[in-house]
Design a protein that fits this description.
Length: about 600
C-alpha cells in the first residue's frame, strides 16, 4: 500500500525520488519522506505529514544532495499518520523504508529495547532498522546483515535498507509486497511499482517472493529465498510513459471513466477470429484444462469481487458451469471444501492484493484443478503465480476508485465464459451474440458518456444526503453493489446495495424522503419485477433515480427521476450500466469536495491483509 523508491547513482537523486513518490502517491498518501547520502557519507533525511507536495515544498526549502537514497509515501498501519511515523526510519547510520506489516514487531521491539535501542516511532518498520543495525554490529556486510534479519521477521513486506557509511549499495528484500529493480546506465533503481521509475528507465527486473537484492551503480545481485544467487529476467516495459498524466481531465477518476471505450477496445483487440472468441494466448494446453472444468471458484476483493459476481451469472446462464464467488479475505481463513474439477479464478486490477494472492496460494494446497488470473498488471505476482492468465488492457489505473479496471475485467470474463461455454456445448449462436455485444460495447459506452451533463445535474440532489440505496436484479445486482461502493468510496456518503427483491425483507424500513434510491433498469425479463419494487419505494416517499433503458416505459413523475439510456445488447448490459453510476459518484464527490483520486483512509493497491 505504501510506495517505495530507491536509487544508487552518481548524480543527485532527490528529484528522481520525489518524482517516483508522486507517481506512487496513489498507493498511500498520509505522509512521505526521503533520505539521501552523499559521497562523503552524510545522510540528510526529510519527512512530512501529508501529501508528497508538502515534502516537495520542504525539499525546495532544504535541498538534499547525494546519489544514493530511499523514499517512501505512507499508508499508515502501525501508528497514526505523523512526521515521527513517516519513513525512512533510522537506527544510527541505517535507514529503512518498508511496505507491509511486520506481524511480530511487538516481541521484536521488546527484544531490541532490552538490547538498548530507543524507539522514536510507533511503527513496526523501526524494528527492521534496529535489527539491521544490531546484526551489522555482529559483523559482515549490509547484505549479510539483512539476510540474517529476514528469518527474524514474520509478515508480508517489501523493504529497502541503506547504510550511510557505504552509499555504494542498497539492499532490498521482498516477502509478500512487490519490488522491481530499474536498470540504468551506471545507475540502478528500486521501487514498489515500475511506474515510479519510468522517467529514468524502461528496463525492469521483478523480484520474486523471498528474493533479496544488492543494488549497486553498475551491478545488481539477486539471491532467492534459499540465499542462492539467481538471475531474474530483464524486461522492457510497455507501460505508457505518460500513464501518470491527467491530461485535460480534472481527476484521474474522470480520465479513467472516459478511457473506458478505448480500454475495452484494447482488451478486445486480437481476441476475435472469424466471429469467434480466440483466447489462444492461454497456450496450447488451456482448452484441455478448460474442458475439464466442472465448477468455477472466483476469488477477489472490492470492485474485482463485484465483477466476479457478475461472472457468476454468466458462467451459470451461458456456459452451464456452476460458479461460486467469494471475498478473498474470507476464503483464505475458511475451511472450504473443493468441488471436483474446480478451476480457481482470481480477479485483480493490481495483481498484488495480499488477500487474493494468499487465496491463490491456498488453492494450490487445496488441490484445485488449476488457476487462472484476470489481471491488469503484466508481471504482477498474481499473474506469475497462476497457471493461466488473461490480461485486461485497461492501461495504468491511478484513481483509487476502480473504474476502467472493472469494465475491462467484465469484458475479459465474458470472453472466458464464452470460451468455456463453447467447450461445454454452448451454441455458436450464443457465442455470436456475445461477440456482437462486445464489439458494439465501446460505441455504446461513448453514447453513454455523452449523458455526462445530465448525470451531473442529478448530483445536486445528493449534496445534503447521508445515505443512499442502490437496487438491481439479476446480473445488475452486482452492478448496484459496485455503484454503492463507488459512491461511498469517493463521496463518503453511506451507500448500500440490495437485490431489489429483498427490499421488503427489511431495507424498506429505511425509505423516506431523505433516502435517494438509485435503480439500474435495463429492458430485460426482470423489468416488470423491478417495476413492482420501484412502486414499493415510491409508495413510501423514497426519492428514486432510475437509470433505465429508453424503451423500458418509464417517465419522470413525483419522486422519480428517469435517466433514459440508449438501448444496449442485453448480454453486455452489466458493463454498460456501470458507467452512469461511476459518473454519478464522481459528480457527487465533486459537490462534496472530497479528494476524488485519493479518498481518505484508502490506498490503491492493498498489499497488506
Ligand atoms: O487490485 P485489486 O483489483 O485486487 O483491488 C481490489 C480492491 O482493493 C479494489 O477493487 C478496491 O475495492 C477499489 N478501491 C474499489 O474502487
Amino acid at each position: 500500500m505504501c510506495g517505495i523508491v530507491g536509487a544508487v547513482a552518481q548524480r543527485d537523486i532527490a528529484e528522481i525520488l520525489l518524482e517516483g513518490l508522486r507517481r506512487l502517491e496513489y498507493r498511500g498518501y498520509d505522509s512521505a519522506g526521503l533520505a539521501v547520502v552523499d559521497n562523503e557519507g552524510h545522510m540528510g533525511r526529510l519527512r512530512r505529514l501529508g501529501k508528497v507536495q508538502v515534502l516537495a515544498d520542504a525539499l525546495d526549502a532544504h535541498p538534499l544532495h547525494g546519489g544514493t537514497g530511499i523514499a517512501h509515501t505512507r499508508w499508515a498501519t502501525h501508528g497514526e499518520p505523523s512526521e515521527a511515523n513517516a519513513h525512512p526510519h533510522v537506527s544510527d547510520y541505517i535507514a529503512v523504508v518498508h511496505n507491509g506489516i511486520i506481524e511480530n514487531f511487538e516481541p521484536l521491539r521488546v527484544l531490541l529495547i532490552e538490547r538498548g535501542y530507543r524507539f522514536e516511532s510507533q511503527t513496526d518498520t523501526e524494528v527492521i532498522a534496529h535489527l539491521v543495525h544490531w546484526e551489522l554490529l555482529q559483523g559482515g556486510t549490509l547484505l549479510e546483515a539483512v539476510l540474517r534479519v529476514i528469518p527474524q521477521l514474520r509478515g508480508a513486506y517489501g523493504t529497502v535498507v541503506m547504510d550511510q557509511r557505504d552509499p555504494s549499495v542498497l539492499v532490498a528484500a521482498r516477502s509478500g509486497s512487490p519490488l522491481v529493480i530499474g536498470r540504468g546506465v551506471g545507475e540502478n533503481f528500486i521501487a514498489s511499482d515500475q511506474l515510479a521509475l519510468l522517467p529514468v528507465t524502461r528496463r525492469f527486473m521483478f523480484l520474486e517472493e523471498g528474493d533479496v537484492a544488492e543494488i549497486k551503480r553498475r551491478e545488481v545481485n539477486v539471491f532467492d529465498k534459499h540465499g542462492k544467487a539467481v538471475e531474474r529476467p530483464e524486461i522492457e516495459s510497455k507501460v505508457q510513459y505518460d500513464a501518470g498524466d491527467k491530461g485535460a481531465y480534472r481527476h484521474y477518476m474522470q480520465k479513467e471513466i472516459y478511457e473506458q471505450p478505448q480500454a475495452i477496445k484494447n482488451t478486445l483487440e486480437g481476441r476475435f477470429n472469424h466471429g469467434q472468441i480466440n483466447l489462444s494466448e492461454l497456450g496450447p494446453d488451456a482448452d484441455a484444462l478448460l474442458a475439464k472444468v466442472q465448477h468455477v471458484q472466483i476469488i477477489a476483493c472490492g470492485t474485482s469481487y463485484h465483477s466476479g459476481m457478475v461472472a457468476r451469472y454468466w458462467f451459470e446462464a451461458l456456459a452451464g458451469v456452476p460458479c461460486d464467488v467469494e471475498i478473498a479475505s474470507e476464503f483464505r481463513y475458511r475451511k472450504s471444501a473443493v468441488r471436483p474439477g474446480s478451476l480457481i479464478i482470481t480477479l485483480s486490477q493490481s495483481g498484488e492484493t495480499a488477500d487474493t494472492l494468499a487465496a491463490l496460494r491456498l488453492s494450490k494446497e487445496l488441490g484445485y484443478l488449476g488457476s487462472l488470473a484476470v489481471c491488469n498488471v503484466a508481471g504482477s505476482s498474481l499473474v506469475r503465480e497462476s497457471d493461466l492468465a488473461l490480461m485486461t488492457k485497461a492501461g495504468t489505473e491511478i484513481g483509487v476508485a476502480s473504474t476502467k479496471a472493472f469494465t475491462t475485467q467484465l469484458t475479459v470474463l465474458l470472453m472466458l465464459v464464452a470460451r468455456v461455454g463453447r467447450l461445454k456445448g454452448m451454441s455458436e449462436q450464443v457465442e455470436h451474440e456475445i461477440v456482437h455485444g462486445l464489439q458494439a460495447l465501446p460505441a455504446r459506452i461513448e453514447q453513454m458518456l455523452s449523458l455526462d451533463k445530465t448525470i451531473e445535474s442529478l448530483a445536486e440532489g445528493f449534496s445534503d444526503k447521508h445515505h443512499a440505496l442502490f437496487l438491481g436484479r439479476g446480473d445488475q445486482y452486482p452492478i448496484a453493489m459496485e455503484g454503492a461502493l463507488k459512491l461511498k468510496e469517493v463521496s463518503y456518503i453511506h451507500a448500500e446495495a440490495y437485490a431489489a427483491g429483498e427490499l421488503k425483507h427489511g431495507p424498506l424500513a429505511l425509505i423516506d424522503a431523505d433516502m435517494p434510491v438509485i435503480v439500474v433498469a435495463p429492458n430485460n425479463e426482470l423489468l416488470e419485477k423491478l417495476k413492482s419494487n420501484i412502486e414499493e419505494v415510491r409508495a413510501r416517499g423514497g426519492q428514486l433515480y432510475v437509470f433505465a433503458d429508453q424503451d423500458a416505459g418509464f417517465t419522470d413523475s413525483e419522486g422519480m427521476k428517469i435517466i433514459q439510456l440508449p438501448h444496449v445488447e442485453e448480454i453486455v448490459a452489466p458493463i454498460f450500466y456501470t458507467v452512469p453510476l461511476q459518473l454519478l459518484s464522481y459528480h457527487v464527490a465533486l459537490i462534496k469536495g472530497t479528494d476524488v483520486d485519493q479518498p481518505r483512509n484508502l490506498a490503491k493497491s492493498v498489499t497488506v491483509e
